[in-house]
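Schema walk-through. Below, the input block comes first and the output block second. Nothing else is stored per chain. Lengths vary across the set, and this one has 201 residues.
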Amino acid sequence: MSDRPADTIATLVDYLWWLLPAFLKKKERTASLVARFCEVWGESLNGTRTTLIDIIPQLLVETATDEYLDMLARARQIFRSEGELDESLRVRVLAAHEIKKKAGTIPGMINGLAAIGYTVEVEEPNTGTDKWSRFVIEVFGWDGVVANQAIFHWVVRLLKPAHTRALIESLILPATWDDWELIEDPQPLDIGFLDEWLPTV
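--- output ---
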């Protein structure tokens, strides 16, 4: 039998006919009862093939959207925050392994935050003293994808060494945390939002 694969034949009706052994193809195709069965099964399978082809991108984090991406995220114990866009959630899902693998170390914090688009430096200013349970994260850059600051703080909590507390110092303009489009000029923060970005111990 030829190695000709199914996807090189225009329809599955043709493919099913091609698969039949020679003794079932003695009659002309137009007069064959077996050919009519091929047509019925082939039409049904064509619809199934279309469905399978359409759904394959939804099985991969890199191409999944909407509720399919949510399902892939839940499998990694990640949940979409209110109003979070697919691209932000996708970045977090792809970063989940890196974050869980290296949580609890300073290099792990740097790599984990880089995985969600933040360029940071992390210091433990009290190392070597009796006040060692503190670290400082300085944010130098951000790619603009994971824009919810609550998510940023949540990732910091996941990554931080267990013996420490966080002080976050950001060089990103405060207005950047607000709800504005990247093509617009930064606007002042919403009233009541300010406390959420200020450094906290």
